[in-house]
């Protein structure tokens, strides 16, 4: 009888809206992983995200994402448990390094350790299933899932980039470069500035651009700092927005394939792409002339990862979430946003109009994630709908009105900035109202009873 009662209780729990939502999300995520695995093997002949994740249990991985994931997982542990987990991870990595050295195993540059972090996360997943029950099990599994999502999300992104290069032979860089005349070709301008400040300027920007995930982990760790004490995760934090941006962004790459000015108008970089694939060797010294754009054939190696700028979207999300932190975190978020925007333009990875689209894209996703957390209402629906409409209008104008934008920069340049500013204003105004409503609805703290004088 007790088993029947417990089964009914578990079934009732599964029928709760939040449980149904998470179950649906899990099924969709699993389906996406399987689909990406199949597509990666079919179009590129390489293993997909699931296979590469399993391989890293034994083979040398890239350590940064794994130890970043371990740091996120450890937010729900006590300090003693954190030291033990970190020590075990380092110890396992030492063993792997010694074994590879003894067997003279060659590993990719920079992939010397990281297996230990993955082993510890998987070990805690086993502990959660076998040694924990109830809320503690759910909490521990959420922590493990958060850490593994950071790692898997990067692998999904890498697979998406490979798919874009294999399935989108034609690129639309001429359209975007023509539309970019409305903003004064900022990539060419900033590219010359970065070139003039070398080697110091480009080294600093390269460090910021390449370590964006580190900044995200730092802000997320601050937001999740009380999980161990409160035994619950906050309802909304940076990692959620970060992962959704990375999940949805590549879908836009497929719709609007663009490789970037350094590839389409320059000599390429790091052996991917090249001047023989470029329209002309112009970047960053000579801005392109205004002419009727056409789709152009490009190689099958360079990712079509330009429109929108996801680095801009991620840096914008970091900036937004750092606003609730201490002063040093707010300064760091501001610096990372400015440096990321400068790097995306100065290295020739993006056009100016990509950054405008990236900001609107980030604000729209952040608004949707906050609305999902607090419950959809009229203000949230209007904000997300407006952001989506502005983003769609930007893409449509880049594709179908580039000549008009280039020939009338005094009209379309301010219109682009106005469209982005209106999305920023709508987000700031609406979220301030939400914060006021949340403060008013929060229960007032009851004062402690004081002893009466006798």
DSSP E strands, number: 2
Q: What is the tally of helical segments? A: 20
The largest β sheet comes out as:
2 strands, antiparallel
Mean pLDDT, all residues: 85
Task: Provide the gyration radius in Å.
Answer: 24 Å
Strand content: under 5%
Which structural class fits the helix and strand makeup? mainly alpha
The geometry reads as globular
Instruction: State the oligomer.
Output: single chain
Q: Could you list the spans in which at least 5 consecutive residues all have pLDDT below 50? A: 1-7, 10-15, 269-273, 445-454
Instruction: Give the CA-CA distance, first to last residue.
Output: 59 Å
- In sequence order, what are the helices and strands, one letter per element? HHHHHHHEHHHHHHHEHHHHHH
Name the helicity range. Answer: over 70%
Major sheet: arrangement of strands: 1-2
Describe this structure as you would to a colleague.
Helix 18 (378-400) runs antiparallel to helix 20 (409-441). 70% of the residues lie in helices and 1% in strands. It is built from 20 helices and two strands. It has a two-stranded antiparallel sheet. By secondary structure, the chain is an all-alpha fold. The termini are far apart.
């Amino acid at each position: 009888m007790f088993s029947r009662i417990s089964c009914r209780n578990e079934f009732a729990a599964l029928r709760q809206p939040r449980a149904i939502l998470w179950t649906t999300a899990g099924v969709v995520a699993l389906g996406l992983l399987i689909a990406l695995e199949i597509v990666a093997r079919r179009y590129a002949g390489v293993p997909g995200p699931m296979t590469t994740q399993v391989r890293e249990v034994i083979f040398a991985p890239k350590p940064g994402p794994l130890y970043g994931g371990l740091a996120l997982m450890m937010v729900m542990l006590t300090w003693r448990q954190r030291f033990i987990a970190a020590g075990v991870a380092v110890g396992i990595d030492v063993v792997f390094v010694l074994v590879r050295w003894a067997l003279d195993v060659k590993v990719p540059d920079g992939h010397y350790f990281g297996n230990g972090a993955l082993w510890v996360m998987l070990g805690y997943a086993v502990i959660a299933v076998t040694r924990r029950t109830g809320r503690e099990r759910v909490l521990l599994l959420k922590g493990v899932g958060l850490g593994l999502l950071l790692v898997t999300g990067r692998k999904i992104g890498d697979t998406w980039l490979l798919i874009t290069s294999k399935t989108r032979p034609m690129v639309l860089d001429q359209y975007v470069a023509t539309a970019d005349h409305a903003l004064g070709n900022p990539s060419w301008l900033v590219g010359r500035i970065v070139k003039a400040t070398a080697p110091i300027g480009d080294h600093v920007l390269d460090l910021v651009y390449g370590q964006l995930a580190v900044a995200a982990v730092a802000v997320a760790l601050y937001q999740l700092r009380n999980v161990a004490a409160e035994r619950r995760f906050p309802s909304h934090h940076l990692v959620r927005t970060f992962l959704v941006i990375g999940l949805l962004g590549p879908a836009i790459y497929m719709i609007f394939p663009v490789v970037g000015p350094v590839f389409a108008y320059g000599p390429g970089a790091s052996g991917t792409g090249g001047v023989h694939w470029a329209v002309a060797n112009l970047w960053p010294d000579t801005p392109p002339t205004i002419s009727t754009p056409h789709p152009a054939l490009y190689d099958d190696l360079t990712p079509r990862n330009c429109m929108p700028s996801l680095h801009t979207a991620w840096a914008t999300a970091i900036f937004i979430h750092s606003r609730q932190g201490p002063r040093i975190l707010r300064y760091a978020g501001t610096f990372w946003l400015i440096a990321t925007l400068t790097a995306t333009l100065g290295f020739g990875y993006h056009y100016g109009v990509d950054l405008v689209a990236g900001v609107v894209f980030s604000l729209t996703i952040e608004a949707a994630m906050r609305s999902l957390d607090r419950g959809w209402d009229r203000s949230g629906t209007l904000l997300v709908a407006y952001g989506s409409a502005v983003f769609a209008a930007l893409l449509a104008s880049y594709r179908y009105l580039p000549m008009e934008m280039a020939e009338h920069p005094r009209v379309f340049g301010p219109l682009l900035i106005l469209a982005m500013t209106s999305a920023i204003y709508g987000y700031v105004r609406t979220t301030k109202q939400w914060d006021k409503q949340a403060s008013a609805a929060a229960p007032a703290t009851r004062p402690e009873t004081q002893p009466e004088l006798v």
